[in-house]
């Protein structure tokens, strides 16, 4: 297949491209705006065509989609805390960008897969969300992602565009930008910086190893029914505090680094996805959280060259704004 992968220079997109080249021999065109989170280095050594553009740019998208069999859209602003501080780019990329891509797919008659998130369902105290659960997003991030999902569904209902939506739970693994919980805690632990736990730290996330999500997206692309959404949830859930304690053990950091800080406004308590529908397509998560976390810590320990330029760059200013303290050199 020839795939147009939007947002393919980010964390999950670049892992997806790797899996597609390795296991499927696809031809891949990556279109990416290279925001603070997108990096050409994430695609180093991979044989892909690269277009540097935003998904909200109709000319660039029309050129990049030529000859593609399918579009897979990862392009997004992805950090909840940034969406609370500055929602602008979330609205542009998720609403306008998704619309531009859908129009291009409609003109070209190309299949469309939207990468979405469990956060569109909101928080759940007990049990798990199914694809029939109502959308009840709480942050500007999840609200604009939910808006994008509805736009995608409208292109199926209105124009018969063959669309599918894949809603993943919290991903972790190599090449995740260190604003997210797991890589942030790993790098802080390695540097002896405080480990900032929001609120009581008892919020629960459903952890999914990034290659498992990449394979799940592949299953939905190959076997998903047009017009449908598919949840792709991780095999294990874990409260944040336990995640941080495990990272302390794995890195050998000092327990006293654990620091309770002010809670995130509107913080969702628990996410949980039921994934029976994608399992029926033949997908199963392969990596348990305990093993994946150990591998992820080892990856960050072994790949300083990947994160050093991030930690010494604009990230420092972001960190100071978000946490009101500086990280060590
Ligand atoms: P990321 O922040 O690492 O990467 C996002 C990529 O999109 C970057 O390469 C960035 O440059 C690019 N991008 C941003 N705006 C763009 C635009 N307007 N046009 C083109 N490219 C643009 O994010 P990620 O964690 O890899 O997430 C990828 C997708 O998966 C997102 O749609 C996200 O909502 C979804 N998702 C993420 C998680 C998670 O835990 N990280 C879980 C479920 C779903
Ligand atoms: P995050 O990785 O931002 O993902 P999401 O909010 O999309 O689930 O956060 C995961 C959990 O970790 C969430 O409950 C917020 C919490 N958290 C902290 O306690 N401290 C931090 O510094 C960060 C970034 C997150």
Explain how this protein is built.
The chain is an alpha/beta fold and 329 residues long. The protein has a domain of 195 residues: Rossmann fold, CATH 3.40.50. The strands form 3 sheets. It has a 7-stranded parallel β-sheet with strand order 3-2-1-4-5-6-10, with helices on both faces. The chain has a 3-stranded mixed β-sheet with strand order 7-9-11. The protein is globular and about 55 Å long. The mean pLDDT is 98. It binds nicotinamide-adenine-dinucleotide and thymidine-5'-diphosphate. Nicotinamide-adenine-dinucleotide binds next to helix 1, helix 4 and strand 5.
CATH level-3 fold name of one domain: Rossmann fold
Mean pLDDT metric? 98
Query: Could you describe the largest sheet, including whether it forms a barrel?
Result: 7 strands, parallel
The gross shape turns out to be globular
Radius of gyration, taken over Cα atoms and rounded to an integer in Å: 19 Å
Please list the strands of the largest sheet in the order they lie side by side. 3-2-1-4-5-6-10
* CATH homologous superfamily caption of one domain: NAD(P)-binding Rossmann-like Domain
Q: Helical region count?
A: 12
Instruction: Indicate the proportion of strand residues.
Output: 15-25%
Compute the number of strand runs.
Answer: 12
How far apart are the termini? Answer: 44 Å
SSE topology string? EHEEHEHHEHEEHEEHEEHEHHHH
Low-confidence stretches: none
CATH level-1 class of one domain: Alpha Beta
Secondary-structure-derived class:
alpha/beta
The CATH architecture category of one domain equals: 3-Layer(aba) Sandwich
The helical percent reads: 40-55%
Small molecules in complex? nicotinamide-adenine-dinucleotide, thymidine-5'-diphosphate
